[in-house]
Specification:
single chain; alpha+beta; four-stranded antiparallel sheet; 15 strands; 28% helix; 22% strand; globular
C-alpha cells in the first residue's frame, strides 16, 4: 500500500512540487480506473523526470552501438565478432552490456539468426552468409539506468520471402505505436500488432513478450502481443516498456534449446523476425527512447 501523502506534502515523484499540484489528480485517476476492474501500474512503474533523463543517456549508447553494428555487419563475419564489437563500443562510451552475466547469460548481446526467435548466443562457429536475416538485440547499463532495443539485418541479398517477413515485423512496431496513448491499455497496442501480423499471413510468438525497463533490465509489466483491446495494464504517463513482437513466418510454436537453456527456435524451422523499441508513455502520446 502506498504511503498516504498530504495535499501540501512534496510529491512522491521527486519533482519538489506540492502533491496537490503534481500527482494528486494522476493518482486519483489511477484509483478510479482500478476500481473499474482494470490492471493499473503502481508508483514504482512511473519513472520520475530524473530517472527518465538517466534512461535517455543510457539509450544514447544503445542506439550508437546498434548504429555501429549496422555500419560494420557483413557476410563472412561470425557472431562472436559482433559480440566483441558490442562490448568494446559500449564500454568505450562508458556503459556496460546488460546481458553479460545476466542470469548466467555468457555474452554481451543476443544474435538470433534465421529460425532463431530470440536469445541466440554469439559464437565463432556461426558465420553470416548471403541471404541470412539476423536480429541483434542490445541492452545497456549506464549509471544504473537501462536501455534496450534491437534491429533486424539482412545479410546481402535475401529472398523476397525473408525480406517481406522482416519488413512486416518492422511495420508491426509502427502499428503498435499508434496505440500507445496515455490512459489506454496495453491490450490496445497488443491487438494492433497481432492483427497486422496475422493479416499479412504471419504468427506472433505467445510465450515471450516485451517488458518494463529502465531501473532494471526486466521490470513489470509483461507485454503481450496476443492481447485484446481494453485489457492488460493501463498505460499511464511515465511508464517505460518495450515493444518487441516476434513474428514467425510459419506456425506460432517455439522451443528452447536444451543445450544452452537460452535460445528460442521456431518449431517448424521457418524464419522469425523481431524489431524492438523502448517507449516512454507521455502526457500526449509516446516518446521512443531507444531503437
Amino acid at each position: 500500500m502506498a504511503k498516504k501523502i498530504g495535499r501540501n506534502d512534496p510529491c512522491w515523484c521527486g519533482s519538489g512540487r506540492k502533491y496537490k499540484t503534481c500527482h494528486q489528480a494522476f493518482d486519483e485517476k489511477i484509483l478510479r480506473i482500478s476500481e473499474e476492474g482494470h490492471i493499473v501500474p503502481d508508483r514504482s512503474m512511473i519513472k520520475t523526470p530524473d530517472q527518465i533523463s538517466g534512461i535517455r543517456e543510457s539509450a544514447k549508447i544503445n542506439i550508437a552501438v546498434l548504429d555501429y553494428i549496422a555500419e560494420n555487419i557483413k557476410a563472412g563475419m561470425n557472431t562472436e565478432e559482433i559480440n566483441r564489437m558490442v562490448y568494446e563500443k559500449t564500454t568505450r562510451m562508458g556503459g556496460f552490456p546488460a546481458p553479460l552475466n545476466y542470469n548466467g547469460y555468457p555474452k554481451s548481446v543476443c544474435t538470433s539468426l534465421n529460425n532463431q526467435v530470440c536469445h541466440g548466443i554469439p559464437s565463432e562457429k556461426v558465420i553470416l552468409k548471403e541471404g541470412d536475416i539476423l536480429n541483434v538485440d542490445i541492452s545497456t547499463i549506464l549509471n544504473g539506468y537501462f536501455s534496450d532495443s534491437s534491429r533486424m539485418f539482412c545479410i546481402g541479398e535475401v529472398s523476397e520471402e525473408k525480406r517481406r517477413l522482416v519488413e512486416t515485423a518492422r511495420q508491426c512496431i509502427y502499428e503498435g505505436l499508434k496505440e500507445v496513448k496515455p490512459w489506454g491499455f496495453l491490450g490496445d497496442m497488443g491487438q494492433a500488432v497481432h492483427d497486422y501480423a496475422y493479416a499479412h499471413g504471419y504468427t506472433v510468438v505467445r510465450e515471450i513478450g516485451g517488458h518494463g525497463v529502465g531501473l532494471e533490465f526486466h521490470e513489470d509489466p509483461w507485454v503481450s502481443y496476443n492481447s485484446t483491446r481494453g485489457t492488460e495494464m493501463l498505460m499511464a504517463p511515465g511508464m517505460i516498456f518495450t515493444i518487441e513482437p516476434m513474428i514467425n513466418m510459419g506456425r506460432v510454436e517455439i522451443y528452447i534449446d536444451d543445450s544452452n537453456g537460452w535460445t528460442a527456435y521456431t518449431e517448424d524451422g521457418l524464419p522469425s523476425a523481431q524489431w524492438e523499441v523502448q517507449v516512454l508513455v507521455t502526457e500526449d502520446g509516446y516518446e521512443i527512447i531507444s531503437y
